[in-house]
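2024-03-11 09:14:02 INFO receiving multi-entity request
2024-03-11 09:14:02 INFO entity count = two
2024-03-11 09:14:03 INFO echoing inputs for audit
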Amino acid sequence: MIEDFIKNIEAEFEDLEPGKLKPESNFREAFEWNSINALILIALIKTEYNVSINAEDIQKSKTVNDIFTIVKSRM
Amino acid sequence: MAIFSIPGIRLAGIAAAVPRKEVSNYDYKWVSVKDREMIVKTVGVEKRRVAEPGTSTSDLCYTAAEKLIADLNWDKKEIELLIFISQSRDFIIPSTSGIIQDRLGLPHSCVAYDIGLGCSGWVYGISAIASMMSATRIKKALLLVGDISTLTASYRDKSTYPLFGDAATATAFELNADAAPIHFNLESDGSGYEAIIIPDGGLRNFISKKSFDYKKHGTGIYRTRFQLALNGIEVFNFALREVVPNAKKLMQEMQKTTVDFDYFVMHQANLLMNETIRKMMKIEKEKTPYSIREFGNTSSASIPLTIVHKLREQISTRKVQLLTSGFGVGLSWGSVAIELDKVVCPEVIEF
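2024-03-11 09:21:47 INFO inference complete, emitting structure
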């Protein structure tokens, strides 16, 4: 469920206002994207879903939903 | 899969030496104040020890070894094996091990050689030293492991500069029929060799004028080809993929679980990576000591430095079961399960 995915992200990134992040949100804008945030997202996806995503996956994704689609396809 | 155990070898003592000079990542002016806070909080490195120019890894190893030999009250004539493991040797030619053998005043009958490994160095080194002692019956041996990484990190590379600190260690081993066996699970995957690399300076890309040109590799990332390049995401994924199965497989072979170990000591890669591995291993925070906040990622020295810094009192007064995992440059990784029973362990030495 993408709602759970968003909840997990909100729990991990304290600066994020709850309810602000939507499936169609551009995560690079929502997060003040940097390489450390990328690692936090990778760690979250690995621990919560036991799925590995790489730099290329992140590069070709734009929205939260794009990332979640990749995660779902590997679960 | 290289899973094996070696009986009859006792870890007699551990010492660690670090440069006196301390720098704080709060003062790292190449990045914004917010980024500095994020480095401290997420990467987990607040302070790092930095060697002065001219100081080499062997200086730190020598300092740690001298103190350890004195505290052990060992006769130097009996030390007939010395292995030096590092990615930051004194010279391209010759090996560093001989230089330290001579400086320590060890006999000519001492076998001395280098092994080129980084983050997995201590774990691999114990396997090399214990195997050789077991086969040769050499009675006393020194494993010298450490790195000076700050010299080859670019100040204008935020992906490496705030991460690394300098440190070196000495670990002493002796033949002892009553010692508990040491258990290993060691693995390698050279297909990832470019993930952590200094591209120029070896024979593949011999040093040239171009080796010193600064190039941009991303926002806040400028470095030369004679400086360390780190593919953070690739290393991160590698560690999350390999370390937990490696350590679990070792425990399974030993018919043990995490409850049988007093502490899980990991290579201090970065706090986020280590904490993710710890959670995947389902090991309590109290059983997972860190030195990364005070010393940064100290490459090959990080496991023994963490043991000396955080477990000194425990290992010198009682029997402690340790599970340790080293992982990184190579790519090379492995775990070792080892019992430390009232070993000699001086406080971290400043050089």
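2024-03-11 09:21:48 INFO post-check: Residues 2-73 of chain A form a domain with the Non-ribosomal Peptide Synthetase Peptidyl Carrier Protein; Chain A fold (CATH 1.10.1200.10).
2024-03-11 09:21:48 INFO post-check: Chain A has five helices and no strands.
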